Amino acid sequence: MLAQPSKVATVRVKENIPEAIARIFSLTSPPHLEKGNAVTIKLNMCFFRPYETGATTDPRVLEALIRYLRTLADDLNISLIESDATSARADLLFKWLGFNELANRLGVKTVNLSNDKRIKVPLPETCHLKALWMPKTLLDANYSISLAKLKTHGLTKITCALKNQFGSIPYRGKIKWHPVLDQVIADSNVACRPSFAIVDGIIAMEGVDGPDMGKPRVTNLLVGGEDPVAVDSVCATIMGFNPNSIGHIREAEKRGIGSQRYEIVGEQLSDIRENFDYNAFYHTVETVIRKIRK
Question: Which domains does the chain have, with CATH numbers?
């Protein structure tokens, strides 16, 4: 007997971002938190680009999320997490993008996962890697949230919840995995699957220069749910892609991380579909390749 499809909330954001964040959880599944629980929020800080470009975490969404979580339990130990990238260091990005100031103001922590204690996580034979050394702060959390952006990506077509979790791997040289990126994205979610995924498309990004230098696109959407495969499948569809054309969605589903079977709650897909520029470029390239092969 097939499991019930997971719920994916799609919420149109109007004036009130806090209200939209609360609606995401009320439509799906509010966290079951207790006093003193450790909560991590994985940001998206891919480069020195302010949130208005659509490249990085929107501080308005982050603040609304922190304040919502604090309505659920007292004395939560909330950490804003990110690891170093090949081209940028998380500590500098926390400062430059204003998250250190936000953290001090709201009484939360910023944690550079690349400097965190690491724990070896063995991976099953279905994975590409045999094991990953993952950060202790993330593994020890009672509840982890992937706060991703709705963006295109030059290598993986989209970058949403599943790809955001890849950024939790604490190695600086993650570029070495680009030839097998879809596989390792899935592996990272096996090593530490988020408890909940929110994809912020209030200011999204489109174009072949995503995920950092593409064009901002206002969609005023939030997408969220407990199943990151289902969430990313919905996000791919919103952007105009067939989810089955996204390699890391297929690989993550194979590994049992989640399913492309979902139930939309909130705005219906027919009302929120977009046609991101990268999708048109992708189809043009595919047409050229097919002609060459003939």
Answer: 6-293 (3.40.50.11440)
For residues 6 and 16, what is the distance between their CA atoms, to the nearest angstrom? 26
How far apart (Å, rounded) are the C-alpha atoms in residues 19 and 251?
A: 34
Distance CA(107)–CA(24), nearest Å, equals: 24
Max distance between CA atoms of the chain, in angstroms, equals: 64
Tell me how far the alpha carbon of residue 67 is from its chain's centroid: 20
> Considering only CA atoms, which of 176, 178, 206 is closest in space to residue 279?
206
Which pLDDT band holds residue 183 (cuts at 50, 70, 90)? Answer: very high
How would you classify the pairing of strands 221-225 and 6-12? antiparallel
Instruction: Give the contacts of 104 (CB within 8 A, at least 6 positions apart).
Output: none
Alpha-carbon distance 114 to 134, whole Å?
Answer: 9
Query: Is 0.90 topped by the overall pTM?
Result: yes
What is the DSSP annotation of the chain? -PPPPEEEEEEE--S-HHHHHHHHHHHS------TT-EEEEE----SS--GGGTSS--HHHHHHHHHHHTTTSSS-EEEEEE---SS--HHHHHHHTTHHHHHHHHT-EEEEGGGS-EEEEE--TTSSSSEEEEEHHHHH-SEEEEEEEEEEETTTEEESHHHHHHTTS--S-GGGGGGGHHHHHHHHHHHS--SEEEEEEEEEEESTTTTTSSEEEE--EEEEES-HHHHHHHHHHHHT--GGG-HHHHHHHHTTS--S-EEEEES-HHHH----HHHHHHHHHHHHHHHHH-
| Tens-digit pLDDT profile for residues 95-122 | 999 999 999 999 999 999 999 999 999 9
Task: Give CA separation, 116 vs 38, 135, 139, in Å.
Answer: 15, 6, 11
